[in-house]
């Protein structure tokens, strides 16, 4: 029983191949029967070869004809094959029936090969789909229970054991492990994760058991958004493909009209015999069909999309892959894009009576329970110190925080706030604080009682790969790179200088960023915008290509952008531009090859140097060649 089931499954999965094999077998037996003079047997086998090999093409061609009132190349192939067979029966030159059957066989083989080629691209893209778990192990009243992913709610606690896929995005409550995030972010090395870290659905847990809290609906997880966007990318045709589709419809009509003229006029104009005239008209239908031209674009773009997905670059559709290769100017948001968006302690300076550790420990004691990003940065910097949380803590928003630690009052905040509690601010520290502020850093003063202990510089960290990315983009020939930010001039220029950007627009509102993008488009036409926040969404939408940071980016930015960098790796922008330019080059090469083959075959047909099977081999061979050429981008 198992063998028939496997045979049935194989037949369903490889229907085109099975049809081509049967068509070839029947064609060979029919030819052999004709060779032996068994006409009745041959006339039984050869029609079967026509039906089995040409059924799918005839069905698709007739469906297009009756439903869309359009002609397509599938129907033209069938008409040419049936015409050759009819001519052979009429003239009793039965080798023409063989020619028509060879046409259908080669067309069937070509269809099967193209199907396998495209399946390779499909598999590469759809490998994302296998990264989603169907169930999650949830903790319910101290017991583990498996439930469908769709039933997970925000706040649920789930358990992931070593070697299992993370079922949904969440925050680690307990445990420590390494996670393989390659399929989601393109990172080649496993990433260490512990309490408080965010994990993503579809990543593979390493050696440690993890307890995770669900912090967003399962359908909003990063992998689910990726899957939806990839599915959208596969169904949306880019402008170039839409143009080719429109061209094909008009071109097919021209071929039919030209074929009719070629089948009727030559005997009157040049004295050809009717057999030669009809045969060359049928060959013309085959060699003039634009199959290779139709295959010049989409296989290439889908391969580029698949390649990008493997490297953590998500193109929402083929049009964006085309556009990114034409980008002449790029605008970067600052916070969360060129920088990490997470403030950290940059430097600590203390007065002579105290050490840097004393300053950090005192400030961290009052910031211990703070939710403010600056407070968290200070506590994180003092992590190795023996901290004790202060009591009677009172925070004054926008100014500072006060508390009692070791029976002494600790004051942490800006200069104006701290000055209310101390006798004076040391002049040396004032100068240091001023120099920090001029380079865009936030200054936090720390005092104990009425004495200043020191100052702490807080800064948003520039991404480690930012400078190298800007350098790489300039080498790729991007003509203009600018930075857009709502931050102050000093901070903006310090970050721009660190990463190598010369042109800066600071203190911008969202609508101001939009205006800058419009001005850049007037000058450079194709402009990319890279951002992560809600305030970047208008500019991302206006840009020719909007690029969002996948991890740190807001939902609005991710939905608005055309390309998503899954691992927040800026260097992937250069890879995306390279893929775009490479895809354009391959598409142009494919179009030249396709048109070259059509022209060559047409000339050969009019000169009488090719017969129908050779025309079919040239036509279908060029189609397979162009399809395989497009798959080069999978590498």
Please describe the structure with a list of short key phrases separated by commas or semicolons.
55% helix, 635 residues, single chain, 6-stranded antiparallel sheet, alpha+beta, 7-stranded mixed sheet, 25 helices, 22 strands
Explain this structure.
Strand 18, helix 20 and strand 19 form a beta-alpha-beta unit. This protein has 635 residues and is of the alpha+beta class. Helix 2 runs antiparallel to helix 5. The strands form four sheets. The chain has a seven-stranded mixed beta sheet, sandwiched between helices. A six-stranded antiparallel beta sheet has the order 2-1-3-9-4-7, with no helix packed on it. The model has no long low-confidence stretch (mean pLDDT 79). The longest helix has 36 residues.
Strand order of the largest sheet: 10-22-21-20-11-18-19
Main structural class = alpha+beta
* CA(first)-CA(last) distance: 41 Å
Low-confidence stretches: none
Oligomer: single chain
Number of strands: 22
Shape, principal axes of CA atoms: elongated
Strand content: 15-25%
Mean model confidence by pLDDT = 79
User: Whole-number radius of gyration?
Assistant: 34 Å
User: Mind describing the biggest β-sheet?
Assistant: 7 strands, mixed
Give the count of helical stretches: 25
Helical content stands at: 40-55%
